[in-house]
Every structure is written in C-alpha cells, then in structure tokens.
Specification:
This protein has about 675 residues and is α/β, with parallel strands linked by helices. It has 3 domains: about 55-195; about 220-445, P-loop containing nucleotide triphosphate hydrolases (Rossmann fold); about 475-664, Rossmann fold (3-Layer(aba) Sandwich), CATH 3.40.50. Strand 3 (about 55-70) and strand 4 (about 75-80) form a beta hairpin. It starts with 7 loop residues before the first strand and ends with a strand. GO terms for molecular function: 5'-3' DNA helicase activity; ATP binding; hydrolase activity. This is DNA2/NAM7 helicase-like C-terminal domain-containing protein. InterPro entries: Coronavir_polyprotein_1ab, DNA2/NAM7-like_C, P-loop_NTPase.
C-alpha cells in the first residue's frame, strides 16, 4: 500500500518521483533506494575526480613541527595556506574532508632529490585565530592544516634513511615565536589538494541492502531470522502475523527495577522513578514489540536520549550468580552508571559498525538514536549485521532529516555536469519518518521538560499540531531565575506583562555582508554581543538550579559563527565557559538558559524557511530566547516576492503577542 500516490512530473526528459511511504513490493523498495544511492555516490565521486583533475594550487607556508605529534614513522607539521575567495568558485577542504597534500617543491640533498607528495592531511582550526596581539594579521586569515610527513625517505641508492626534508622549507623552529615570523614570497610554497575518491558510507549502505536481497553463496552467512522479519516489516509497516517480543518478560529487572531482588543501582532506580507518563508508556510498550522493531518519536526536551540510556542500563544491570559473571556484570553496571552520570550518550555510527566490529560484538538490544537523521539504507546496517532481540529507533522527525545533495532540477544537474537523481526526496525520507507517515509509531514523547517561561508554546503550534506540552505546572513555569529573565526581556521590550520569554528584535538599518559564500551582520552581531555580556555580568542571571546561567549564540551561517566565536574567545575564561557558539545545523542536542538566534540576512530568508531547521533553532532555550531577524525574512524572492511559510510565523506571532522590538 502506498499512502501517497507515486505520481510523476516531467522536467525535460527526466522524471521526478514523489517518495513512497509504504512500498507495494520489495522490488520497488530496492529499485528506488539502490538507484538513488548509486546516483548519489556517482555524483559525489565525479565531483571529487573533477576537483583532482583541476589541480588547483594554493600559496602556503610550512611553519614548524607540531609539538608532541611525532611517531616512529611520521612527524606532524603545521601548514598555513591561503584559501580561495568565494567568487573563485573553488572547493576548499573543511575539517570533515578526507584528502592529501602535494607540496610543489623539491629539495636537493647529497642523498638525492626529494619531493613531498601524497602527504596525509587534515584541516584544523587556525591556532592563531584568537590571539589578541595577532588581531587583523595575515596569519589569522590563513587556513591551517596538520600534515603528516614520513620520517624516512628513499635515497637515489634505494636505501631508506631518516631525513628531515621539511626542515629545509620551514618558516620557524617553533610555534610560539610568531613575532619573528615572516610570511612572504621568499618562503612561500605552492600546494595542491588531492581528494580521496572513495565513498565508504555509500558502499556500506549498499552492502547492507544487498546482504538482504542479493543471491548469496551457500557458504556465506545471510541475515538472521529476526533480521529478515524486521526488513520485511519496515518496507510497509503492515505485518500480517507479527512475532511479538516481550522485553519486560525477558529482562525482569527492566519490568520491575524497584524490586530489591534485582539489586539495581540506586541511581538507575531514581532515574526510572523520574520518568513521566510518556516515558512510562514507552517503557510498557517494550512488552509488545512487533518483529523486533520499536519506534519512539520524541519532541525537543522530551528526554529521548535519557530514556535510551536508562532502558539500556537497566537491561545491563541484570544480577546473576557465579563469581565471574557477577564480577563482569558489576563492571558493566559501573560503566553504565558512570556513563549516565557524566555523558549524554555513547554511540557508534552505523558505518563503523558494519565492518569486523559486528563479528565479535553481539548486542542484545540495538538503539538507533537520532534515527530520523539517517538515510534509509544507513538504518539497514544494524539490521543486516546484528541479531539482537530488538532494534529501538528514537528521534524526532520534526527536526533534522537525512542530508542528500540536491541539484534542484535536471537542467541544473546538467549544468553542473552531474546526473539528475529522481529519487532525491525518497533518500531524504528516513525509515522513522516513513513510520510516522504510515501511522506505525509505537509511542510519542510529547512532554517538554526543557522549556520554562512558556517557550514550548510557539514550536508546539508551528510543528507539533499543539500536541507538545510543558512538563512544568503553571505555578512552576516561572521559577526565580526565569522570572528575572522575564523582567530583563520586558526592559528590552519597554513594557511589562510579557506572557512568554521570547522576543523578536528587528533592526531597520542593519545589513548583511557576504564573505566567501557565507554571511554575517555586523550591527546585529554587535548588539547580540553586548546583550550577552550584560547578562554574563549580572549575578542574578542563573540557571533554574541556581548555578551561573549559560548562553547559546546560534546563527545559520559559518561566517557569522566564526565572528561570534572569535569575539567570545577574547572574553574571560569564566565567561567563555558559560557561552557556546553554534551554527543552527550543529545545535540539535544542545541547550542553554538563554539563546540568541541571529538570523543574519536582510535581503531574503535564505535557507531558514526550512521547518526542520527552524524547529531545531527555536527549541534550544530553557528560560529565554531572543530572535534577531529583519523584516525582509518574511519574504522570498524566488518566482516573485512571496511570503515565507515558516519564518514569517515567528514574526507574526511576535507581532500578535506584542513581543516585537524595533530598533534603528
């Protein structure tokens, strides 16, 4: 059954396919996901090959060896390079990219002539970016790389000998004497970037799919019985005669953690006692798992990861007799107790788990946290290679979704020299998002315990059909720390009786500035910085528990992020520890007492009219939120001037509730 008909519209000679929620057959499931992934992989590898073929070179300076980063085989060096301007339309490495560096310089020594090609490298944060005495210097504007250089080189005689080739090219002997450095044409070297043309993620995804559907040799192990049941079920979410898994019966300590016979650590018992009605309902549902698949969707601040950790820790806390088993269980229990006390979660990525890891590790339960962020085939990896009692998927389909490159149209793809992918929207629909659309969720967590000051109201109305409610009663909605911030916002607003600790601030004269295909807004930046400093300097600014309050500065753009980050790093260490600067796309999973959301743009909405991205942005605050946005973010210019769909709701809601502040 297909909930939405698979109709097709034509763009030139290329068909655009609407995503399927319930697949009518396994063949259709395989065809769409395999072909879509192959096209995505082909385009990515094609782009990398084109980059390598271009052979772009960049001016660079080999600074010095990095202290404490030498092994028996290689020495790590700091290399600083000039990155291209945005108008040059050149792709430049980020911290997440995989590449090597060629140094276009040969060194002639008595042992021979040596070159430095294919050096493993990583992009790192500029170590001098926030050094006060270097402010505005050329050094701060360069991109930094950590480059691994072999200690041994092959001589003309074919012998391997230890040689320090980089010593003949370096600017300095150490990294702490920047005042003596001279970066000019005399010591400049040219480098080129060689991108690694591999796609481990796509290959792991396709291997998982083929593990289920491709013919196998008789000696090769195939998917387990439970894996087959789960794979069949997730295609359409309509099992005719499902096998029911009862985790509460299998793990009695999970069913009755308060029973002293199970000897559950008190910290776990207390955390279980703190579960709200939604948590308890999801816990009870573990007794009725169909074909090993269990889906729990949770709103922001609902305690999804905490629920995962408590359930997994309770399962691990089973008390057994026998000395060795008892010691082992005690160690495992101690580990989970420490994890719960000091960390948010412990995880491996599905791709990392697809290798030999699956041969020696046999989990009883697999939790797929943030499942809506994973592509469909990524979630197949733990189904293919593990044989647990159950797979538990948690996350929020209303927030992030899988990333897929999108050319927009066949014409745009052709202009970029890429293959148009008619299955882009199918790849963007995660397994968990399909489960939601198919009404196949097992439970929802809709109680927001994070937000005070009625901050839950707006995102609940915009994204959750009003179903997300606060975990705080009316009398506890404004504890003293939140009441203080309410008064602070009322001073900015110029009136009292604020019903919600959220303001929208608009500057009539602010203007965005473009820098390397990204943006920042100097006037909005300065105002946010002053407001943050004002709060940090006030001893009354506290968390609900009474500790010093903390702040998050969010922005959609990398240039604005870097500007805020550079400013914050100049502040006293005590203040720095209370402030986090994040891009909107990195904000999920984080929270703060006060959140400043600088939307930056003044000519259009940009990409901030995306509901998932906007939902993440306005659900990070615990006690107060200030959104800085220009009136033009209410409109988009594509196909004529039109109202935005989501960003304009922020503005309209603030205007309707008199929470809109106009500044010159």
């Amino acid at each position: 059954m297909v909930i939405k008909p698979d109709f097709e519209t034509f763009t030139g000679s290329t068909k655009m396919h609407q995503p399927v929620v319930k697949f009518p057959s396994q063949e259709e499931y395989v065809r769409r996901l395999e072909q879509g992934t192959l096209i995505e992989m082909e385009n990515e590898l094609s782009q990398l090959r084109k980059l390598n073929a271009r052979g772009d070179t960049y001016p660079a300076w080999i600074i010095a060896p990095i202290p404490g980063c030498q092994t028996s085989f290689a020495t790590s060096w700091l290399l600083m390079a000039k990155s291209p301007f945005s108008i040059e339309n050149i792709v430049f490495p980020t911290v997440a990219d995989r590449f090597t560096i060629d140094i276009k310089e040969s060194v002639e020594l008595p042992q021979g002539v040596f070159t430095l090609y294919h050096l493993p490298a990583t992009r790192i944060e500029n170590p001098f970016g926030n050094v006060g005495e270097l402010e505005g210097s050329r050094l701060q504007k360069l991109a930094a790389f950590k480059v691994e250089v072999p200690r041994c080189q092959r001589t003309d005689d074919g012998e391997q000998t230890e040689l320090d080739i980089m010593a003949h090219l370096q600017v300095s002997d150490a990294l702490d004497n920047t005042s003596e450095w001279v970066l000019d044409e005399n010591n400049r070297k040219n480098i080129s970037i060689r991108w690694e043309v591999t796609s481990q993620t796509f290959e792991a995804e396709l291997d998982a799919l083929r593990f289920f559907v491709a013919p196998r040799r008789s000696e090769k192990k195939g998917p387990s019985h439970r894996s087959k049941l789960a794979f069949d079920m997730l295609q359409h979410f309509q099992p005719e005669d499902p096998e029911i898994i009862n985790l509460l019966a299998k793990y009695r300590q999970l069913a009755e953690p308060h029973n002293p016979v199970h000897k559950i650590p008190s910290v776990l018992v207390q955390k279980f006692s703190d579960f709200n009605s939604d948590h308890l309902a999801a816990h009870q549902g573990l007794g009725q798992i169909k074909n090993g698949l269990y889906f729990v969707n949770g709103c922001p601040g609902a305690g999804k990861t905490e629920w995962n950790m408590v359930i997994s820790a309770l399962i691990q806390s089973h008390f057994t007799y026998g000395t060795k088993k008892r010691v082992l269980r005690r160690l495992v229990t101690g580990l989970y107790r420490d994890v719960l006390a000091g960390a948010d979660f412990v995880a491996t990525t599905p791709v990392a788990a697809s290798g030999s890891f699956s041969h020696f590790f046999h989990p009883e339960i697999v939790f797929v946290d943030e499942a809506p962020h994973a592509r469909e085939l990524t979630t197949l990896i733990p189904l293919a290679y593990f044989d647990p009692v159950a797979w538990i998927f948690t996350g929020d389909v209303k927030q992030t979704r899988p990333f897929v490159n999108d050319c927009g149209s066949a014409k745009n793809a052709e202009m970029k020299g890429l293959k148009f992918n008619p299955y882009t929207e199918q790849l963007r629909l995660s397994t968990m998002a399909r489960a939601v659309a198919a009404d196949a969720l097992d439970h929802k967590l809709l109680v927001n315990n994070r937000a005070y000051g009625n901050l839950h109201r707006l995102p609940s109305a915009m994204f959750y059909d009003g179903e997300m409610i606060s975990g705080h009663e009316e009398e506890s909605m404004y504890p003293p720390s939140t009441a203080f911030l309410k008064e602070h916002l009322e001073k900015l607003l110029g009136r009292g009786d604020l019903q919600e600790n959220r303001l929208v601030v608009s500057f009539a004269s602010s203007a965005e500035q473009c820098h390397r295909s990204s943006f920042w807004n100097p006037e909005q930046h300065s105002w946010v910085i002053e407001q943050a400093k004002c709060l940090l300097g006030d001893s009354k600014f506290q968390s609900v528990s009474g500790t010093p309050g903390n702040i998050m500065i969010q922005t959609p753009y990398s240039t604005a992020f870097r500007q805020y980050q550079a400013e914050v790093k100049r502040w006293p260490e005590e203040w720095q520890g209370r402030v986090q600067v994040l891009t909107v796309d990195k904000a999920q999973g984080n929270q703060a007492d006060v959140v400043f959301l600088d939307m930056v743009r003044t000519t259009s909405v940009g990409f901030m009219d995306d509901p998932q991205r906007l939902n993440v942005a306005i659900t990070r605050a615990r006690q107060a939120e200030i959104i800085v946005m220009h009136v033009r973010m209410n409109y988009r210019q594509a196909k004529g001037c039109r109202r935005t769909r989501y960003a304009t709701q922020l503005w309209a809601d603030a205007q309707a509730h008199r929470r809109l502040v106009h500044l010159q």
